[in-house]
Amino acid sequence: MPKKQYSGFFIFCIISVWFLLCSKHVSCQENNQAKVDSLRYILETTDDLEVKKSVLTSLCIHFRYEGDWVKHDQIIQEMILLQEEKLDSAYLADTYNELGISNSLRGENEESLKYFQEAFNINSACGHMFGVSASYENLAQVYIDMGNYNTAVDCLLKSIEIKKEHNYSRIFNIYMKLASIQTILETDKVDHYIGLARQEIQAMDSVQPADQVVFYNELGAILRDQG
């Protein structure tokens, strides 16, 4: 296992450096194509399963950001075929999560819910509780987009329950999501959830700048919505 993890990390270090060097010499469009070609070359020349999984995931994310849904969905099919070949349930759950994200970005909320639910079912069956917690958060976001706030709240509270039980981190950001929902619903629970988020941050051994950014960004949005 350590060897596989190292292989994937090593490959992506090379890719990252190559991307940075390449961006200085070619146009944006050419650089994007160079990225894809480089990843494709690695995919076709490696027998390392972990590297294949990482490369396919990177290609999928790339095409998602590009908004090239035809190529994105082609990569998704390759990811599913790889899972079927290797019987990798965790990777299949990740693939369904990607389908959930991409359909959400396309405004296909019902499809998005279906795929996030598939990921949830796989994670539940495997006892992967961190994945279950993440699935609840993903489902909650779609319900928020659909205006189904009460169901979103239920999902977020279930995610918090799992994270507390298993001592997972970043509970504060879920409390901020709950505060944001309460702002929309115009309830008196906004300050309650903001206070819980502050308590979580204060209880952390060290607060990363990225966590502070998330907290203050959410707080700013809440205050803006409150006028």
Walkthrough of the structure:
The protein has 227 residues and is mostly helical. Helix content is 84%, strand content 0%. It is built from eleven helices and no strands. α2 packs antiparallel against α3 and α5 packs antiparallel against α6. The longest helix has 22 residues. The N terminus is likely disordered.
Q: Figure out the total of helices.
A: 11
Name the average pLDDT: 82
* Amino- and carboxy-terminal Cα gap: 52 Å
Please give the largest β-sheet: none
Oligomeric state, counting identical vs distinct chains? single chain
Shape: globular
Uncertain runs with pLDDT below 50, 5 residues or more?
Answer: 1-26
Class per helix and strand makeup: mainly alpha
Rg result: 20 Å
Succession of helices and strands: HHHHHHHHHHH
- Report strand %: under 5%
Question: Which characteristics define this entry?
Answer:
globular, 227 residues, mainly alpha
Question: Summed up, what is this model?
Answer:
The protein is an all-alpha fold and 227 residues long. The protein is 84% helix and 0% strand. The chain has helices spanning 2-23, 28-45, 49-66, 69-86, 89-105, 109-126, 129-145, 149-165, 172-185, 190-203, 209-225.
SSE inventory with pairings:
Blueprint: H1 2-23, H2 28-45, H3 49-66, H4 69-86, H5 89-105, H6 109-126, H7 129-145, H8 149-165, H9 172-185, H10 190-203, H11 209-225
